[in-house]
């Protein structure tokens, strides 16, 4: 007899485990209080995972598999995954009088990997397009791990967007120069695909068990996909209506548009309802069938996020854990202001990005990177607290993908493994990419004074205070040349303004 553990992010019905019904195999899914508590999670995030697990268990039962699903209310609950597994094994051994083996799929998170290690046989999750150590092997001995180099290897390995001679379609590997336009407010934005589930019973279960959480539950009309069929419908809708504009508006920020032309498939991918090749092949097929409707830069840009970035950050995670979670290159220690948990700030761009995250458990990449992450880095937020924030709030947040994006790409806390320079900007970049500034209490044109955009002075404060760590970076040198050319009293006024902003950060 064998127990096969299925984790909340392993909801792939096509896994080879399920190809046959084996009477001696029991599939086990546990709602684990330990997992739900290890970071304060957004309500929608917890509901989406538990809802997906319930659906998955029901599907397995309907397909004739034996399933044990322990809810948080189950009297046998021990709280932790390992505890529950051991309790179920003891129960089955006592009942059947024979030894019970345990099998589990390779966990994606270091913490879970450690917790389950030694319990039984570990099988592949059959999800990713690379081995855990692929990035480490490709960049052995290098300081910076260049995503672009990794991505080209992946394009060839999986034969994606290649012509008959094995060359990149369109004559280039990357068309980003043609992507990333500023927002055009007259552009029509299609409605997003959404589910309509009632998960109030689940929400009540979380309440009953005192699980701490934040953000809107949206439990009466829950929008996130619950199984592979819904995830495929979400993907098909994206390819049909949004992919043609994906590249052009990838970095746009728009008042009143939560999703723009982004796919919202990250939750479905990270729970393995979708396989990465589902998305990659669907985008490539759309372009091959109707190149006049699907610009190659849009399709290549979308594919790069999944075939490139997603696999690459996973590789960084496994190459650098557990040390990676302790990195703090700039030694930033500022606690997060209260408005990171309420959205109540006068900075319109932050209000929109944080407010939306609380309402929907989602923000698109440029909001995560160039609005919230940008401000966090300029202001010097403690990366540990910031990690917990990102890990808690987003529907797709699992440590293997959240951590390299937050510590690495967004906060440069790894000193330049993921990125070659910090992603920071003053207000002018945000003004160029979107239309928040027009309705902001601050003026993006002003650098000092009561109504000056806080990003402007904090930008210079960041570079001035971190000069010893950044000055020799060839991609940053220009910034210091500009700073040095400023009149001393202007430099001083900028630093004073930034210090005043940092002093009253809760009131910004
Ligand atoms: C600070 C920060 C934290 C992040 N935390 C997470 C996280 O916890 N979980 C997560 O899945 N993504 C994370 N990302 C990456 C990215 O922002 C999200 O994957 C994306 O916004 C999800 O929305 P979407 O599905 O609409 O993506 P789209 O814009 O439609 O992109 C398509 C897919 O590409 C993949 N992708 C795009 N960018 C990245 C990236 N940088 N790293 C990995 N995959 C990527 C995702 O699977 C995404 O679903 C983070 C980015 C930043 C800057
Ligand atoms: S003025 Fe500054 S704070 Fe306000 S929306 Fe623009 S960039 Fe954001």
| Bound molecule types | flavin-adenine dinucleotide, iron/sulfur cluster
Rg (CA only): 24 Å
Shape: globular
Q: Characterize the largest beta sheet: strand count, sense, and whether it forms a barrel.
A: 5 strands, parallel
Taking pLDDT < 50 over at least 5 consecutive residues as the criterion, the unreliable ranges are none
3D architecture notes:
There is one protein chain. By secondary structure, the protein is mainly α. The protein contains 21 helices and seven strands. It has helices at residues 33-37, 43-62, 81-96, 110-116, 134-138, 147-157, 200-208, 228-241, 243-246, 266-270, 276-289, 296-320, 348-360, 365-379, 383-393, 399-410, 427-433, 454-465, 467-470, 477-485, 488-503, and strands spanning 2-5, 25-30, 41-42, 66-70, 101-105, 121-123, 213-214. Helix 12 packs across helix 16 (399-410) and helix 18 crosses helix 21 (488-503). The protein binds flavin-adenine dinucleotide and iron/sulfur cluster (SF4). Residues 262-266, 269-270, 305-306, 309-310, 313, 364-365, 368-369, 373, 390, 394, 396-397, 401-402, 405-406, 409-410 line the site of flavin-adenine dinucleotide.
SSE blueprint:
Elements: E1 2-5, E2 25-30, H1 33-37, E3 41-42, H2 43-62, E4 66-70, H3 81-96, E5 101-105, H4 110-116, E6 121-123, H5 134-138, H6 147-157, H7 200-208, E7 213-214, H8 228-241, H9 243-246, H10 266-270, H11 276-289, H12 296-320, H13 348-360, H14 365-379, H15 383-393, H16 399-410, H17 427-433, H18 454-465, H19 467-470, H20 477-485, H21 488-503
Parallel strand pairs: 1-2, 1-5, 2-4, 3-7, 5-6
Helix pairs in contact: 6-12, 8-11, 11-12, 12-16, 13-14, 14-18, 15-16, 18-21
The structure holds flavin-adenine dinucleotide (FAD) and iron/sulfur cluster (SF4).
Iron/sulfur cluster is lined by residues 347-349, 427, 430-431, 436-437, 440, 442, 444, 453-455.
């Amino acid at each position: 007899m064998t127990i096969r553990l299925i984790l909340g992010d392993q909801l792939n019905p096509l896994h080879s485990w399920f190809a046959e019904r084996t009477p001696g195999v029991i599939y086990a899914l546990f709602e684990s209080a330990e997992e739900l508590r290890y970071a304060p999670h957004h309500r929608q995030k917890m509901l989406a995972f538990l809802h997906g697990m319930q659906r998955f268990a029901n599907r397995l039962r309907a397909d004739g598999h034996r399933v044990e699903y322990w809810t948080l209310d189950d009297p046998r609950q021990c709280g932790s995954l390992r505890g529950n597994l051991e309790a179920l094994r003891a129960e089955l051994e006592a009942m059947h009088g024979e030894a019970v083996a345990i099998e589990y799929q390779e966990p994606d998170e270091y913490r879970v990997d450690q917790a389950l290690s030694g319990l039984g046989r570990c099988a592949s999750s059959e999800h990713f397009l690379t081995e855990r150590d692929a990035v480490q092997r490709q960049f052995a001995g290098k300081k910076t791990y260049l995503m672009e180099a990794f991505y080209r290897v992946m394009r060839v390995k999986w034969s994606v967007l290649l012509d008959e001679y094995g060359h990149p379609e369109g004559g280039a590997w990357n068309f980003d120069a043609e992507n990333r336009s500023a927002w055009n407010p007259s552009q029509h934005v299609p409605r997003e695909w959404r589910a309509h589930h009632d998960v109030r019973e689940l929400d009540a279960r979380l309440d009953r068990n005192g699980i701490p959480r934040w953000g809107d539950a949206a439990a009466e009309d829950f929008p996130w996909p619950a199984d592979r069929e819904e995830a495929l419908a979400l993907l098909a809708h994206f390819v049909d209506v949004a992919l043609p504009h994906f590249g052009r508006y990838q970095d746009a920020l728009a008042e009143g548009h939560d999703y723009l032309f982004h796919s919202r498939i990250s939750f479905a991918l990270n729970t393995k309802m979708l396989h990465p090749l589902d998305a990659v092949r669907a985008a490539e097929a759309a372009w091959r069938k109707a190149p006049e409707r699907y610009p190659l830069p849009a399709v290549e840009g979308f594919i790069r996020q999944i075939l490139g970035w997603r696999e690459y950050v996973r590789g960084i995670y496994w190459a650098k854990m557990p040390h990676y979670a302790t990195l703090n290159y700039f030694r930033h220690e500022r606690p997060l202001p209260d408005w990171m948990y309420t959205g109540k700030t006068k900075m319109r761009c932050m209000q929109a990005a944080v407010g939306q995250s609380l309402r929907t458990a989602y923000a698109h990449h440029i909001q995560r990177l160039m609005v919230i992450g940008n401000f966090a880095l300029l202001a010097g937020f403690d990366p540990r607290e910031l990690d917990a924030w990102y890990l808690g709030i987003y529907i797709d947040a699992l440590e293997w993908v959240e951590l390299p994006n937050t510590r690495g790409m967004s906060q440069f806390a790894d000193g330049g493994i993921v990125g070659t320079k910090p992603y920071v900007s003053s207000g002018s970049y945000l003004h160029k990419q979107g239309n928040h500034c027009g309705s902001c209490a601050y003026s993006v044109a002003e650098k000092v004074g009561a109504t000056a955009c806080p990003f402007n002075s904090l930008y210079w404060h960041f570079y001035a205070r971190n000069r010893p760590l950044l000055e020799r970076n060839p991609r940053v040198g220009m910034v210091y040349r500009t700073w040095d050319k400023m009149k001393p009293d202007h430099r001083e006024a900028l630093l004073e303004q930034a210090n005043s902003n940092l002093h009253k950060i809760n009131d910004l």
